[in-house]
From TrEMBL:
Keywords recorded for this protein, A-Z: Allosteric enzyme, ATP-binding, Deoxyribonucleotide synthesis, Disulfide bond, Nucleotide-binding, Oxidoreductase
UniProt keyword Disulfide bond, yes or no: yes
Top EC category: oxidoreductase
One Pfam family linked to the record: Ribonuc_red_lgC
EC nos: 1.17.4.1
Species the sequence originates in: Companilactobacillus baiquanensis
Family listed: Belongs to the ribonucleoside diphosphate reductase large chain family.
Protein name, UniProt field: Ribonucleoside-diphosphate reductase
Catalytic activity of the protein: a 2'-deoxyribonucleoside 5'-diphosphate + [thioredoxin]-disulfide + H2O = a ribonucleoside 5'-diphosphate + [thioredoxin]-dithiol
Ranges for domain Ribonucleotide reductase large subunit: 562-584
GO terms, molecular function: ribonucleoside-diphosphate reductase activity, thioredoxin disulfide as acceptor
InterPro entries linked to this entry: NrdE_NrdA_C, RNR_1b_NrdE, RNR_lg_C, RNR_lsu_N, RNR_N, RNR_R1-su_N, Rrm1
Length: 723
């Protein structure tokens, strides 16, 4: 008789100890065999004795339905024999976890358990089964395709989708939300309520405060009445802290502010460690919205003017976020009706760098770059908690009863990732991507966030999705290619060109089937065909012999095929307004035994702090004596190489990518040619931000700094070990 998970004595199990031994070199070698032993011990000591047993598959499913664990309607869409056969087909794949971290994360965070948390009620194959059945919505062929894509780890839905698929008692399938506040108390109140509701149901919430009048501006003609954006930030932080999903998550909110907003210095100061407690925000993430004009003023070492959103809206008749500041800057400077404040551009740039050194914030959104590449009618004004979602929004108007006089559009995003290493072995690249596009589209179709009507409206009109990728460094290492090399940059560009092509093909097919396009399709660059011109005029097929070899056996769309796709899209439209985005996907990448996103690994053996069980260790995927030399730490990599890799992918991505910069406080000699000493300075960060801007990067996520004091990188010994 099992004691159950709640009575498991972690001091008597061996898998934690075995996993920890990976980080203790033996004769100068990393003992990877200890991780394999930890996997076996985990299943023997934890999973097998604590999984509820059933006499048959039918009894198992009936139990899950009868006890309100699984949605009956999802099961009812298919003949039961089909479901059982599909499950058996998944089991016949004999999936094996390749790291202890993967198995531990899956069973700890994703696998369904009894209400008392004492027994597991499913395995990996069954979690995949329920995902496939849900997304296929009764389509047996699609369900089978998706199940195979997931068990062979070519496709990984984002955490909210993968966790909640098929469950009766669940959160939302969508990953995150974007909201804007307009400059009135009704909008502020509604946004705080929305933050509470969205934080309760799941996902992170990004909010732009750029439209709010600055501190000291008038309210109803009374001068110096407004308190500016800081009190609203505090209200939002408290809302996220209060509505924290039963204590599972803390402060998953981000606020954005335009660098030309008069409160920008106070906004940045609120995140500093020494900030007054009255204004300091501890858990809220900060992002800055940066127009091209800012970079021009930095380059010229000029003064810059900050403009009152209150007076700008009165003059232009629309909220501050919707003004093209780069285009209108000189006009606004010259307009006496617009209140303005003068600061030095490089002093602000230095403040941004100082805060990034101290906290990793703010994120940076290059808003003009985003809108130049935006194929959809309208204006992108902000991003999300992880900077990869960039979609058109329109403002709402709310009356004193907190009712929508005019319904605007805000954003909910549902995400999924391809696993690059496994995708490069797929028997049919196009079939895989088309199936993933269908799965993500289903999540958009069924999402209806009634608590925030503007989010529901945006999703209903746009059907946006976000397919991305993870595991670039793992794949490059497996092929003995250096991260950041010309071949790696060429490879990722071709890979994302293929993602772009096949998601377009499938979105066009869905539009044909349903005789429906996203809202305002006829005003988009897709409808007039201009979006496709670069693909028709230039070949993006592999050019170097090495990259050609990597893509051998994978169909490469010709310029003629791009031209045919253009004609088809102009004729029948697209169903999804947005299709591609690259999330950080750090946690879910462990389950896929691959490196996170498109970034380099931070160490050969990654260290993770678990709340209850101390430190866990994750060896770089596919690490062996052949790949070790290609697994250089991100902290020892020239960040311009990372930027170049992301820029190559960005050319084909209609939204953004979460690009983290990894820096050492003591920079190794020879990485950056402008360095005369080893100490990281604010100038280093400024140079890299500007380099990213000039390379066409839309957004920068965190700046992570490794300091010798906190040893963030884990065991330094392992950095130079052999296997």
């Amino acid at each position: 008789m099992t004691l159950g998970l709640n009575n498991l004595d972690v001091t008597k199990v061996t898998y934690f100890k075995l996993n920890n031994e990976i980080n203790i070199p033996v004769d100068g070698k990393i003992p990877l065999n200890k991780d394999r032993e930890a996997i076996k011990a985990f299943f023997t000591e934890n999973v097998e004795p604590n999984t509820k047993k059933f006499a048959s598959f039918k009894e198992h499913i009936d139990y899950l339905i009868d006890n309100n664990f699984i949605e009956k309607d999802v099961i009812a869409e298919y003949p039961f024999d089909f479901i059982e056969d599909l499950y058996q087909e998944l089991l016949a794949k004999h999936f094996q976890f390749k790291s202890f971290m993967a198995a531990y994360k899956l069973y700890n965070q994703y696998i369904l358990k009894t209400d008392d948390g004492d027994l597991y009620l499913e395995n990996y194959e069954m979690r995949i089964l329920f995902n496939a059945l849900l997304y296929a919505h009764g389509d047996q062929k699609l369900a089978k395709t998706l199940a195979i894509e997931m068990i062979e780890q070519r496709y990984q839905p984002a955490t909210p989708s993968f966790l909640n698929a098929g469950r009766k008692r669940r959160g939302e399938y969508v990953s995150c939300f974007l909201l804007q506040v307009t400059d009135d108390m009704n909008s502020i109140g509604r946004t705080i309520n929305s933050a509470l509701q969205l934080s309760r149901i799941g996902g992170g919430v990004g909010i732009t405060l750029s439209n709010l009048r600055e501190s000291g501006s008038p309210i109803k003609g009374v001068a110096n009445s407004s308190s500016g954006v800081l009190p609203v930030m505090k209200l939002l932080e408290d809302s996220f802290s209060y509505s924290n999903q039963l204590g599972q998550r803390q402060g998953a909110g981000a606020v954005y502010l335009n660098v030309f907003h008069p409160d920008i210095i106070d906004f940045l100061s609120a995140k500093k460690e020494n900030a007054d407690e009255k204004i300091r925000v501890k858990t809220l993430s900060l992002g800055v919205i940066v127009p091209d004009k800012y970079y021009e003023l930095i380059r010229e070492d000029a003064d810059m003017y900050l403009f009152s959103p209150y007076s700008v809206e009165r003059v232009y008749g629309k909220p501050f976020s919707y003004i093209d500041i780069t285009k209108e800057y000189d006009n606004m400077v010259a307009d006496p009706r617009i209140k303005k404040y003068k600061i030095n551009a490089r002093e602000l740039e230095d403040e941004i760098s100082k805060l990034q050194q101290e906290s990793g914030y703010p994120y940076v959104l290059n808003i003009d770059t985003v809108n130049r590449d935006n194929p959809i009618e309208g204006k992108v004004i902000m991003s999300n908690l992880c900077t990869e979602i960039q979609q058109v929004q329109t403002p709402s108007e709310i009356n004193d009863a907190q009712e929508y006089v005019k319904m605007g559009t805000d954003v909910s995003c549902n995400l999924g990732s391809t696993n690059i290493y496994n995708m490069m072995k797929t028997p049919d690249f196009g079939k895989s991507i088309r199936a993933m596009t269908r799965a993500l589209t289903y999540v958009s179709d069924v999402s209806d966030i009634q608590a925030v009507p503007s989010v529901a409206n945006g999703n209903k009109l746009n059907h946006s999705i976000g397919l991305g990728a993870m595991g670039l460094h793992t794949y490059l290492a497996s092929q003995h290619i250096e991260y950041g090399s010309p071949e790696s940059i060429e490879f990722i560009g071709v890979y994302f060109m293929l993602l772009n092509y096949w998601t377009l093909v499938e979105s066009n097919e869905i539009a044909k089937e349903r005789n429906e396009t996203f809202y305002n399709f006829e005003k988009s660059a897709y409808a007039n065909g201009s979006y496709f011109d670069k693909y028709i005029n230039t070949s993006f097929a592999p050019k170097s012999e090495l990259v050609k070899k990597l893509f051998a056996g994978i169909d490469m769309p010709t310029q003629e095929e791009w031209s045919k796709l253009k004609d088809s899209v102009m004729k029948d439209g697209l169903y999804n307004a947005y299709r591609l985005a690259v999330a950080p996907n750090g946690s879910i990448s462990y389950i896929n035994n691959t490196s996170a996103s498109l970034q380099p690994v931070t160490r050969l053996v990654e260290e993770r702090q678990e709340k209850k069980n101390g430190k866990l260790y994750f060896p770089a995927p596919l690490l062996d004596n052949d790949t070790i030399k290609f697994y250089k730490s991100a902290y020892d990599t020239d960040m311009r190489k990372v930027i170049d890799v992301y820029a190559s992918a960005q050319e084909h991505v209609d939204q953004g990518m979460s690009l983290t910069l990894f820096m050492r406080s003591e920079i190794p000699e020879g990485i950056y040619e402008w360095k005369t000493d080893s100490k990281q300075t604010t100038r280093d960060l400024s140079i890299l931000r500007n380099y990213a801007y000039y390379k066409g990067i839309k957004s920068l996520y965190y700046v992570r700094t490794f300091t010798e004091n906190n040893d963030e990188i884990g065991s330094n010994e392992c950095e130079s070990c052999s296997i």
